Amino acid sequence: MKPIDSIRGRRPVRISARRQGRRSARGGAFRRTLRHGAILISLLALGGCVNQLDLLQQQPVSCSERRLDVAAALFEESKDFMLQYFEERDNSLLLFAYYSSKDAEDLTKSIRNCNDFDRDFKARGTELIRATRVLRRVVVLNMRDPDPAVMAQLLGPNYNGVFKSDIR
Known about the structure:
- The chain is an all-alpha fold.
- The protein has seven helices and no strands.
- It has helices at 4-7, 17-57, 63-88, 91-109, 119-142, 148-155, 159-162.
- It is elongated, with a radius of gyration of 38 Å.
- The mean pLDDT is 75.
């Protein structure tokens, strides 16, 4: 039976024992260095990634959730402005409360544009919209001028639409 190399038409390459010994000694040292280098690089890479593991374990915040959180913070801010108004009786605080609650409502309505919008977010959003509308009604009721004639002159025919609960 012929060796496989001679079947293919190749001659086997023979290396002298002296050269073979040198080559294996060099090859072994080179392989050990390469192996140690690979272990060192993998340890460095693993050490660098350990700090990243905490970031990867946290769940990414969705678009709808982020917007609802910001809208809830705006609503809480408008409630704080309203409470400050009751303590200080400064009309500018009412304006701040009104506009921040309107911003909260607009931001809550914008979650419909998010790609992860579902029933849970819709339920939370409708509750937040209801709460902001109630707060804005309270703000509008407290925005009245002590003399309703001044406000009636300013608003004209729209006065009854803005202040619905006035005694006529």
